[in-house]
Design brief:
Blueprint lengths: L12 H24 L2 H23 L28 E3 L5 E5 L6 E3 L12 E3 L4 E4 L5 H4 L11 E3 L20 E3 L6 E2 L13 E3 L4 E5 L12 E3 L4 E4 L13 E3 L4 E2 L11
Parallel strand pairs: 2-4, 3-5, 4-6, 6-7, 7-9, 8-10, 9-11, 10-12, 11-13, 12-14
Antiparallel strand pairs: 1-2
């Protein structure tokens, strides 16, 4: 059997052309491989890294090492959304974006991280039955960067906590439809921020220490279906503006210090 040795390539344009062709082929192959990956895969990968960092903020600010749960969050894992994820209480949509966080009765202590509200697909938060003092709304502007969007949160349940302010919650005015802050430490007049939440359908402020008269601006929350304000220390009369809540189905001011007759407008609700 005979072997023929190919002559070595000559230096010059042919050699340069070969290198150029090879590089071009590699670039083309890389492009093809990239095109074969679904666009959603690339988006979710980036989103997952960001989401994991947000969850780390939530965990640290709410004393995560002492949560009451059989499965603690593994902050070293970026597996946020799979069925095997260690992130208890976190729910995602089919595209791998966090939509709900439910950590009720888990010994959460401290303040909610404002980073939570940078999750653009987050719609529901349930941190009820814990010892949280601040919902994080007053610090949202401190953590937004560039084109960051505020989450489209629809429901926040902080029932049975230690919340003493709702400052900054008006930043969620475009999306918030349910706010539950029964059994907390709100004191003084009804917070002004409430009246910016025009999309509210459910407002629960019972069993706090609210004082003063019922604010007449309550009539501007025209989408309210349920309004709970029993067990406070409110005084005066129920204002006629309450009649502007034409959609309301449940309205309760029991166990306050109100006086006088019910306004005539209530008959037309």
């Amino acid at each position: 059997m005979k072997f023929r040795m190919k002559p070595a390539p000559k230096r010059g344009s042919h050699h340069a052309s070969g290198i150029s062709t090879t590089l071009s082929s590699i670039a083309t192959l890389s492009s093809l491989l990239l095109l074969q990956l679904p666009a959603s895969t690339l988006v979710v990968s980036a989103a997952t890294q960001t989401q994991q960092k947000v969850l780390e903020h939530v965990y640290v600010d709410l004393n995560g090492d002492n949560w009451d749960t059989a499965t603690a969050w593994d902050l070293d894992s970026d597996d946020v959304c799979s069925e095997d994820s260690s992130y208890t209480g976190v729910k995602c949509n089919d595209n791998g974006h966090i939509t709900e966080i439910r950590l009720s009765d888990m010994n959460l202590v401290g303040v909610v991280s404002p980073h939570l509200y940078t999750l653009p697909y987050l719609t529901s938060v349930d941190f009820s039955k814990n010892r949280i003092t601040n919902g994080g709304w007053d610090r949202i502007d401190d953590v937004l960067e560039g084109d960051d969007l505020i989450a489209n949160v629809e429901t926040i349940d902080l029932t049975n906590n230690l919340i003493n302010t709702i400052e900054g919650i008006d930043k969620l005015a475009d999306s918030l439809t349910g706010l539950h802050i029964t059994y907390n430490n709100l004191k003084g007049p009804m917070p002004s921020e409430l009246f910016s939440l025009k999309q509210l359908e459910i407002l629960a402020l019972s069993e706090n220490a609210l004082t003063g008269e019922i604010d007449t601006r309550i009539g501007g929350l025209s989408n309210l279906l349920e309004f709970y304000c029993y067990g406070n220390k409110m005084t005066g009369v129920i204002p006629t503006e309450i009649g502007e809540l034409t959609k309301v189905q449940i309205l309760t001011f029991a166990e306050n210090q109100l006086k006088g007759p019910l306004p005539e407008e209530i008959k037309y609700m």
